[in-house]
Amino acid sequence: IIIVIINIVIFYREAIEHCRSYNARLCAERSVRMPFLDSQTGVAQNNCYIWMEKQHRRPGRAAGQMYTYPARCWRKKRRLHPPLDPQLRLCELRLGNNQTAHELQPNYTQTVWVEAE
Question: How far apart are CA 70 and CA 58, in angstroms?
Answer without folding.
Answer: 8
